[in-house]
Design brief:
Elements lengths: L1 H13 L10 H10 L11 H11 L5 E6 L6 E7 L8 E6 L19 E2 L2 E3 L7 H16 L8 E6 L9 H12 L3 E11 L5 E10 L1 E10 L3 E2 L8 H14 L8 H13 L4 H9 L4 H11 L3 H6 L3 E9 L5 E2 L2 E10 L5 H12 L4 E8 L1 H5 L8 H13 L4 E7 L6 H4 L5 E10 H4 L8 E3 H19 L3
Bound molecules: zinc ion.
Length: 463
């Protein structure tokens, strides 16, 4: 008995990770929502809404849960009434997360573990951390009885990471519930260096959009003992190699230009010079050198151009049969203004093989045509101001978000959406998003909540 107790005590002393609730209310809420496994598929986002209802309804929020045709999947909408003299501001956060490779995590990804001042778990960055920040910020408006000129709407959404009952689905029949003057969503970054000093805050005003391209190689289907030159798998491999060796040309949008100009100010030489060469579009050799150095960072590489990423390879079904075809799905993330059909033509040209066909499998042409949200709106201005106040060392800049979000439901209707992951993270932590040991620091969550609360007071509070 005694030895058992001793073992327990030792084990406890060694095991720093804790599932105890954090004292910071945003971190404690994040722990709670991480414990609701909303890996999508299937998502089951309704459980998050059920939890948030118990917290927001007693504070005077009007709650609507919009069920989708899929059981357990619903959108959660909480509205805090203002005096109606201005149109609502909306905060959108998706409740679903991507799945995990559980064996590659050092902690249980769905336990809401705290270790060394960080909350660990799937969604800590994307986007349950943001959901917790947005939720705590709007709760504080109610708790402190801030008089409001406009309604503040919190939307916790289903199906951002996968499947079809997303905000576009919600907007079709329930637009009146989420109509607003402008909105906050996931998007830009608050990037800190390894010592925790915040370098920049990027507020996204547009998103890259996602295009699926199917590359199919054909050959003769036959016995594997008599291989022929037209092996579909080899043909596909050659096509993929050509795409791998091809670098998409640089295309800077106005916001990307501002973003890199901000980085020129906050980074050290020689990188700062490379950013300047890129922004000022100096001679070809200088830009080429700048591109090479800047592109060592995968995020910056992706901001400058359309990107090519093979994601699924499919071919063959028996170990003694050469298949008649093999195909690869390529995910292409395009800069606004890129027509999906152009990508098919470009790929066909690069692959340059009559045995290979290239076609679109999914593409949203309107997404790539939607203009960026303006930087002179009260919401952008308030967020930029309080970002600077909360993180005085940072440059604040608009940003083209390198991935897609569900902001299209609003942007396509002319409603500005500004994206922010509202907590400082390092470049290393960013690589954990959709990866392993995703985490966010408790201090980052606290600062982010302060920034969003002050932004809302500025934009929705009575003076
Ligand atoms: Zn996300």
């Amino acid at each position: 008995m005694r030895s058992a107790v001793l073992v327990f005590v030792l084990a406890f002393a060694v095991a720093a990770p804790s599932a105890q609730p954090a004292t910071d209310p945003t971190a404690a809420l994040l722990q709670e929502v991480i414990r609701l496994d909303t890996s999508n598929p299937p998502g089951r986002e309704g459980q998050v809404g059920d939890l948030l209802r118990t917290k927001l309804q007693p504070l005077g929020f009007e709650i609507t849960q919009v069920p989708t045709p899929e059981p357990g999947k619903s959108h959660f909408i909480a509205r805090l009434r203002g005096d109606g003299s201005r149109r609502p501001v909306l905060l959108a956060a998706h409740a679903d997360v991507v799945g995990v490779e559980r064996e590659k995590w050092s902690v249980d990804p769905f336990a809401g573990v705290i270790r060394d001042g960080y909350v660990y778990g799937r969604g800590a960055i994307d986007f349950k951390g943001g959901m917790a920040v947005f939720t705590r910020a709007v709760m504080q408006l109610a708790e402190r009885k801030v008089p409001l000129t406009r309604d503040v709407i919190l939307l916790v959404e289903a199906d951002e990471e996968a499947a079809s009952y997303n905000t576009s689905w919600l907007a079709r029949d329930h637009w009146d519930k989420i109509d607003c003057e402008f909105a906050l969503n996931e998007g830009g970054w608050i990037i800190a260096d390894e010592r925790g000093k915040v370098q920049y805050v990027s507020i996204s005003t547009a998103d890259k959009s996602s295009i699926g391209v199917l590359v199919t190689a054909r050959g003769t289907s036959t016995h594997s003992s008599m291989p022929r030159p037209d092996n579909a798998i080899f043909t596909l491999a050659k096509a993929l190699t050509r795409l791998a060796d091809y670098e998409m040309p640089i295309q800077l949008t106005p916001s990307t230009r501002q973003f890199f100009a901000a980085l020129a100010k906050t980074s050290a030489p020689p990188l700062s010079d490379h950013f300047r060469a890129l922004v000022e579009n100096r001679d070809g050799a200088a830009v080429e050198r700048a591109d090479r150095e800047i592109s060592r960072n995968p995020l910056w590489h992706a901001l400058m151009r359309n990107t090519i990423a093979p994601v699924i390879v499919d071919g063959g079904f028996r170990s003694n049969v050469i298949p008649g075809s093999a195909e690869a799905t390529i995910n292409v993330r395009v800069i606004p203004g890129t027509e999906p059909a152009e990508i098919v033509q470009q790929f066909t040209r690069i692959v340059n093989d009559p045995a290979v066909t290239v076609r679109l499998v999914n593409a949203n042409a309107t997404a790539s045509r939607t203009p960026a949200s303006p930087e002179d709106s009260p919401l952008y201005q308030a967020l930029a101001k309080h970002a600077k106040a909360t993180f005085p060392t940072a440059e604040v800049t608009p940003y083209l978000f390198q991935a897609g979000t569900d902001a299209g439901a609003w942007r396509s209707r002319g409603v500005p959406v500004y994206g922010i992951y509202p907590y400082p993270i390092t470049a290393e932590e960013l690589t954990r998003m959709h990866g392993n040991d995703e985490r966010v620091s408790i201090e980052s969550l606290r600062l982010g909540t302060e920034m969003i609360f002050n932004t809302l007071v500025e934009v929705a509070g009575k003076r």
